[in-house]
Amino acid sequence: xxxxxxYLVDNGIKWRAMPSDxxxxxxxxxxxxxxxxxGLVTELHDRLREAVxxxxxxxxxxxxxxxxxxxxxADATVxxxxxxYDAGKKINGRKRHLLTDTLGLLLTVLVTPASTxxxxxxxxxxxxxxxxxxRLGRVWxxxxxxxxxxxxxxxxxxxxxxxxxxSDDASGFEVLPRRWVVERSFAWLLRSRRLVRDxxxxxxxxxxxxxWSMTMLxxxxxxxxxxxxPVPTRAA
Length: 236
Fold this sequence. Notes:
Residues 61-214 form the Transposase IS4-like domain. This is Transposase. Residues 1-45 form the Insertion element IS402-like domain. It holds the Pfam family DDE_Tnp_1. This protein is an alpha/beta fold. Helices cover 43% and strands 17% of the residues. The protein has helices spanning 2-11, 25-38, 40-55, 118-132, 148-157, 179-189, 203-228, and strands at residues 64-73, 84-86, 91-100, 106-113, 138-141, 160-163. Strands 1, 2, 3, 4, 5 and 6 form a six-stranded mixed β-sheet that branches.
């Protein structure tokens, strides 16, 4: 069942186009929905993230994070009540708000209509993250999070929100400190074809697909590290 869900997320197929060597699509979707509703996907994802952080010599719980958003086009299956228009990006669809650690690993995700501003989404995303990650003390963000949000996070959450601004003299692409981490995470997610466009009717289903995509990335990383470890030899 897990391989079937991973295949769907990675290749972007329809549920009804599930290959015959997997269980019937209806059974796979029922498994997907049960894990989504019971929070088991989140638990699997969080355990993998802790394992990756430990393998990198980090504490299981992060103390700093990076936040950003990405607007993606929505398919016709997405209802009008859960989609919106991002005037800045000129995209009609949904917006993914990610909070990642300094390694680019996902801490929490929130999917909203594309018309939702970054500041409004942060008032939902950051309190949930602070409640789950007690050590979290600093968050970096771009200019879309300026304003009263910086004072609000300090007063109500005890978080320092650092704004990484783009230079006024810069032209074209520019790698910005800290912000490139979450931008790379968005690029990782777009390797999963199911996430190139939002096809899900429910926003919590979209969030679950993001979690599945990140579990694939982390499990492959852990498997690669295991293969690279030297095989111990017995003493003569």
